[in-house]
Each structure stands twice: as structure tokens, then as C-alpha cells.
Amino acid sequence: MPRSSGILSSQQSRNNRSEPSQSQSARPSTSGQQERGRTSSQQQQDGTDDVEQDQMVINLVKAILNMSCNKHQMKKPDLVKNALGGNSRIFPKIIGQVMRELTEVYGYKLVETERNKTYILVSTITCGSILDMNDEYRKSYTLLYLILGYIFMKNGDVPEQGLWDFLDKLHISSEDHHSFFGDVPKLIKETFIKQAYLVRTKQVVEGMNEDRYFYGWGKRAEYELSKRDILESFCKLMGKPSVCFITQHTAAYGMNGEDDMSDTMEVTQN
User: Fold this and answer.
1) Cα 149 from Cα 245, distance rounded (Å)
2) Are strands 212-217 and 118-123 parallel, antiparallel or unpaired?
3) Element (H, E) at 75
4) How far apart are CA 76 and CA 116, in angstroms?
5) 202: which strand partners?
6) Rounded to whole angstroms, how far apart are CA atoms 261 and 24?
7) Is 94 exposed, middle or buried (0-12, 13-18, 19+ CB in 10 A)?
8) What DSSP string runs through 186-199?
9) Could you tell me the pTM of the whole model?
10) Which residue of 20, 52, 54, 198 could cross-link 24, Cys pair, CB 3.0 to 4.6 Å?
11) 13-27, pLDDT tens digit by residue?
12) How far is residue 223's CA from residue 56's CA, in Å, rounded to a whole number?
């Protein structure tokens, strides 16, 4: 691995520093003894020394890269089991170094989706064009873009039936196998949710006898997709300027947007 040589070099440096000269060994300092005592105590707590800890960093980086190939969320217990041999106490000590390795060497950001529960790996390098994607991912990404765009233009969570009604208008049925996108229900209800692009929640609706499901943006979507691009794309399709949608424009550009909104404050959203 690109960074393993650096870790090994640091290990060798520690070994060289651990061999004192005769004068140093003849006069051991009290502070040095105290430091060694503290290090020994820390090692006893998690059962590792510096060399083993560096190896665990390498193991955890490898495990995260391997487990994130399908973009699914990774559970902390699975990472601990597969990479750290079940040693959960070492995890908080090395996770910071692991995150730095993933960012500086591989260009990824490790994101915690739910506190101490699951993680996702997102790219810090944006894709220049949809043409840069392989054929299979290009198809699913196009469907995902439509869904996230619809949710965004609707100001947040949308009813499941409302989403299917929108897709049906685009001749994307919830029942038939689509000739271009494939198994659309599986992509929406399983793949996109496991990849943290979408979240599907059950909500109690007042006046309804049964609970209803809603779809919203997932954690990965917040990191990997541009709300500006989505807003401008949908506005081009509708033939309207983005400032016609004040809430979405604010979410995409902030309160001080790049466009002059002074003449459009009376425009109401459709």
C-alpha cells in the first residue's frame, strides 16, 4: 500500500531511537522512565504495541476499501471483527489515523452515518462527467439523479406513492422490468438505500388508517451530489429560472446567492 512504507519507516525510526548510547543507558532519566511506564500502561489496556497498532491501521484501511466496493454502509462491529480481530478498544485510538490515510492517500472521506453505528466511504474527487462512468453505473446514476432531483424540488421527504406517480409519468413503472434501468423497485428499495443515497422512513399521517412510507436524501447524496446542478438541470427542463424556486435556490446557493433575487421575491413556487 502507498502508505505502508511510511508506517514501516516510522517503525524503524522508533527501533533506532529505542537503542540508547552508553552514556544514555548509564543515566536513565526519571521522565523517560515515567514515559515508558505510561506507554506500557496504555499497551496493556488495549493489548497492542506501536508496531501492532500500525499494522491494525493498515488492516482497517484495507478492510474499509474492500467493504466499500459496492458502496454499502459498513457497520462498526463488522470492521472491528474483520480488521482488528475483535479488539474494539483499539478502534477509537486508530480511527483518526485511518481517516487521514484514506483522505491523503486514496482521496476518500470516511463518514459516520449514525453515531458509532455505520460508516460510508465517499469520494473527495467529483466525477467530471457522467460519460466517465461505466455503462451499468451510468444507468443507475441517471435514475438516482431523477429521484433525488424530484425529492429536492419537493422540499424534502416525499410520499412513496408520490415518487412512483412521478416516475410513472416518465414511463418508469414500479411493476415492469425497465428496458434501460432494469429492476427499478430493487434499485430504489434496496440498492440506493444500502448505499445511503436514499432513506426510506415510515411516518404516521394524521387521518390515515395506516402508516405511509416516505423517501428522502441519504447521507451519501449530501456529500456526492450538487444541489446547484440538480436545481439548474430541472429548471432547464421546466424552462424557468432557478430563482423562481426560492427555497431550493437558497438551499443550493445560500442566502446570498450568485443570482440577483431582488426582482423575484414576489414569484411564488409551483
Assistant:
1) 13
2) unpaired
3) strand 74-75
4) 7
5) 213
6) 72
7) buried
8) HIIIIIHHHTTSEE
9) 0.73
10) 20
11) 444 444 444 434 444
12) 28
